[in-house]
Give the backbone structure.
Amino acid sequence: MRFELRLAGKRLAAAIIILLAAVLALAATMAKGTGAGPVNADAMAQAIDAEKDHVTPGELARWILEKRQDYQLIDIRPQWQFDDYHIPAAVNIPLTTLFEDAGLKQLSREKKIVLYGFGAGHAAQAQLLLSMKGYRAYSLRDGIVDWWEVIMTPSSIRSDPPNPTGYREAKQLREHFMGAAGPAGSAAVAPAAVLPSPTVQPAPPSTPPKNKLKLGHGCS
Amino acid sequence: MNAPFVSTFSGPVFILVSLILGFFFGFFLERAGFSSALKLTSQFYFRDFSVLKVMFTAIVVAMVGIGYFAMLGWLDMSQVFVPPAFIWPQLVGGLLLGAGFIVGGYCPGTSLVAAAIGKLDALFFIGGIFIGIFLFGATEPAFERFNSSGSLGPLTLPVWLNVNTGIVVLAIVLVAIGAFWASEMSEGPWKLFARTYGRAQEGEKQS
């Protein structure tokens, strides 16, 4: 008799935990997210203020080096600009097709979605729209211009004061991505075209690089 | 509202919270009988699956609990630390730890629990842990490339499988129930122990 009671207890415990997990699975499926629920405007505003809504070029470069699999890098520029130059590991989904079924189908709800455009604007707006749809969306800080400035430009010719400690890491990252762009690609030659004279005045990062970079215009 | 994180506490409060959590972790390990090397290694002879049952129960309860906390908005999952995955070194490390578990009779946590109640063999085991730590530390540069191989970042099952977290939770609960059932069958009706170690059981009956 006592043995039967213990058996019932085990079955009861098993049934309860399965029921609890099933409710969780059902709720998560209905929320169509990672259990994060619908977008909370206040929480999002706090994240923006704390600069937690974007990824810096340095962070992104390290993610790529570490071959992390927990994010998707999406280039929302038109295809011809993507073909000219893009960050390695990026997938091109132009903004005009991002919210069509074919575009949304390529995005994972379980991964971080990192968007970038030419500048900061379009990516940030697309990020907001994706967040409202329940995706974990981020944007690259100041777009591919910033990537070029921070990762691909040698620190000796940067406008900001030289920083001996950051120099080695910056050099390592730059050489990696110069190489990753492929020796056959035009991107590896690009820096020569971008090199301004060292005496160039500190310019705001929003200034587009020279034409030869072919990053595209007017889509910041 | 958010659940307290370790980073919420600092200084002496952090140490106090760690002490309290550690005390109860050790206490319940001991109450489960995990201060006995015999009990712990019984699992590898299909005789007593207490370790699997206790640990998997803890995992399932914590997992479902965290799932509900996240669903109700009490816990911000993006703040939860996920250790990065390095597949190859973790595979080799896991095999080494398993082999040491069978030979030594303890895993690191249970050896401390056993030492706390005065087991001599556990003290030797802990000595071995520290010798291993220093040996590894001294030779670490030789393993540097291997240690960072197979890096996948902080990868979780839902991300890897691209499946909803809730579905993964349900699947793991079902796997756990199946494992509990199989271990009870192995301890009883299937007599896996007797089949694999037949002679040893005869010896037991004589004694």
Q: What stands out?
A: The longest strand of chain A covers residues 71-75. Chain A touches chain B through 29 residues (CB under 8 Å). Confidence is low (pLDDT under 50) at residues 32-38, 181-220 of chain A.
